[in-house]
Each structure stands twice: as C-alpha cells, then as structure tokens.
Predict the structure.
Amino acid sequence: MTLEEVLIQKPTERAQCTGKALEEVLVSAKDNDSLTVGVYESAKVMNVDPDSVSFCVLATDEEFECDIALQIHFTLIQSFCFDNDISIVRVSDMQRLAEIVGDKAEQLEDAHCVLITNPADGSWEDPALEKLHLFCEESRRLNDWVPEISLPER
C-alpha cells in the first residue's frame, strides 16, 4: 500500500487496516523469532543494539493506567524511540496483545512493551510492517507522535 492509498482511506478504514497489519506483523515476527516482550527485556535490547529495533508497541489497560512507574518507563521508551527513529504505537488492550505474542502455555504478565527486531541476516521482511511505518509517518505529520491502534477482536 502506498502513502497515497493510506491518505485517501477514511479514518475508520485506516484504523481497521492498521490494526490488522499490526496483528499480522506481530504474528510474523513471532514466527521469525524477531520479538522482544517486556519493558525490561525491551530496554536491554534498546541499550545493547538499538539499530536492530524496527518497531515498538506500548500497551496498557485500565488496570495499569495509574501505574506511575509504568508511565515513566513508557516516557523513557518513547523518547528513546524518537531519538533513534523507531516507529512506535500504543494499543489499549494489553490482554489481546499478550494473546497475540504469547504462547498458549505461558501467561505473559509483562506485555506492556513489545519490540519488533530485525534479524542479523536481514532475511525477514513484511509488507504489513511497511504499512505500519507509513501510518506512523502520517500520524507524526498530524502531530500524533504515538498513535493508538485497536487490535482486531477474535
């Protein structure tokens, strides 16, 4: 999808398309072992190899909206992403995000931050990731620096 095609979409169509693209990218990245899940694990990856990070997803829900420590972590992660030109979005359904990135057998307690990384060999590319980058670029033009995306329901 080109930038022009993204721009002519109605806002509701754009949000639905972007939510589906995010889910596709997360599933594909998980299959290619290109996901980092968790605030602390993500911070480690960003500190050690920021060039490997392609995309960042921050998630919260009503239970954690008033968690000051988490909000401070989010602010630091957002700042790091802006400084390193990493596209970043928010989702408001942490449970749904955990379902997508987690294994059925394991219960993910810290799915507040998910990074999509590029493998060292560069063999993994996803067209849906390009859609997400275009969405983030357009959102920044509209002064929405951390746009919120709704993940599709199951």
